[in-house]
Amino acid sequence: MEIPNSVEKVLLDEETIAARVGELAAQISADYADNDGLILIGVLKGAFIFLADLARRLTVSHHVDFIALSSYNRGTANAGAVRLIMDTRTSVTGQHVLVVEDIVDTGCTLHYLLRTFHARKPASLRSCVLLSKPDRRQIEVQVDYLGFEIPNAWVVGYGLDYADRFRTLPYIGELRREAYE
Ligand code: IMP
After folding, report:
1. CA–CA separation, 173 and 176 (whole Å)
2. Are 123 and 104 in contact (CB under 8 A)?
């Protein structure tokens, strides 16, 4: 696969991602083996590829739903406030909810999501996040299943974007700083 000029380097290649997603799916399948009513809630748009791969490797029955939130408006400047754009179709009350997110940066988005779902009284509530940038954290959030910790850089591919570009790159690459600073 060709690497676009704006991508500085490949951080996680396809094989590395697939192997880790398989491990996460195995762990989740073991943990939810005795639970009925698991709902995976993917956070649009960034988590759509991660969720698709993860869900297909689960060996426990589950439903899939989505939620959409406001993302950073221009490039990487965090607007701070999180806004709900599209809610789930199914009710999560009494269900085992697993929020599937692409990346935790400041923690604001996941914090908002967990607070929102907690208020709806699910049977249980956990989060599964592919990437975390711990150096950027402003709010401590609960991440139950984590794919990779990464350094503080803007990453794209495997669902993650910069200004809605690069989402379908099969790997996760670091964007050149000149492209967003
Ligand atoms: P937080 O609320 O600061 O934790 O940001 C979470 C959201 O910011 C993620 O769901 C992404 O949409 C976006 N985001 C943060 N860092 C990156 C990145 O490096 N690449 C792409 N999107 C990112």
Report:
1. 9
2. no
More confident residue, 82 or 171: 171
Can you count the helices (H) and strands (E) in the chain?
3, 9
What is the rounded CA–CA span in Å between residue 86 and residue 171? 28
Give the Cα separation of 24 and 38 in Å (integer).
Answer: 15
- 146 CA → ligand 1 middle, Å: 15
pLDDT in tens, 35-66: 888 999 999 999 999 999 999 999 999 999 99
Best CATH choice for the domain 14-152 from the list 3.40.50.2020, 3.20.110.10, 3.40.50.2000, 3.20.20.70? 3.40.50.2020
Does ligand 1 lie within 6 Å of residue 127's CB atom?
Answer: no
Is residue 26 helix, strand or coil? helix
* Active site annotation includes 105: yes
